[in-house]
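Thread amino acids onto this structure.
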């Protein structure tokens, strides 16, 4: 088990240097693309993500993942960003000549990301697909590394009913 912790802003800055170096440039590209009006209005996840992506915990979380991924992966390897959402993490990895797939259970989101042509934003190629992480279509041993960041808490446990968080209990 890993615990991501920083006692103050200075420690967050020291521990999140990989976020600053690799992730922040991608976020700036996404912000410009958004400001220029290239993001469709029905893709609300991007402005929402840009609002929360720099929170101290997120900076630590992505720096931790980048530390492991950048150390482990080499050009020509295969990587999966499982439950990708709209983060540019898959593009950070793909920019290092690593074959990168990204999947999410939200088909609408995946369709919008494909239509958005994220390669034009970030300059790296990622293959997006709609996948249910409980039963993906990827063959065993396809990937050299897989990340699944802030996703598992959104997958219902086996045997539990899914509840709509926007619905009122009766």
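Threaded sequence (170 positions):
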């Amino acid at each position: 088990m890993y615990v991501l912790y920083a006692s103050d802003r200075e420690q967050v800055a020291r521990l999140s240097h990989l976020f600053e170096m690799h992730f922040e440039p991608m976020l700036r590209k996404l912000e410009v693309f958004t400001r220029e009006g290239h993001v469709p209005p029905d893709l609300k996840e991007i402005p929402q993500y840009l609002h929360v992506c720099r929170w101290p915990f997120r900076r630590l979380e992505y720096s931790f993942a980048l530390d492991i991924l950048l150390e482990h992966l080499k050009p020509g390897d295969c990587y999966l960003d499982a439950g990708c959402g709209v983060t540019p993490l898959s593009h950070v990895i793909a920019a290092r000549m690593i074959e990168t797939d990204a999947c999410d259970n939200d088909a609408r989101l995946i369709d919008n990301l494909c239509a958005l042509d994220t390669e034009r934003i970030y300059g790296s190629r990622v293959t997006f697909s709609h996948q249910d992480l409980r039963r993906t279509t990827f063959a065993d041993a396809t990937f050299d590394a897989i990340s699944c960041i802030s996703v598992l808490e959104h997958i219902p446990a086996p045997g539990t009913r899914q509840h709509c968080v926007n619905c009122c209990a009766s």
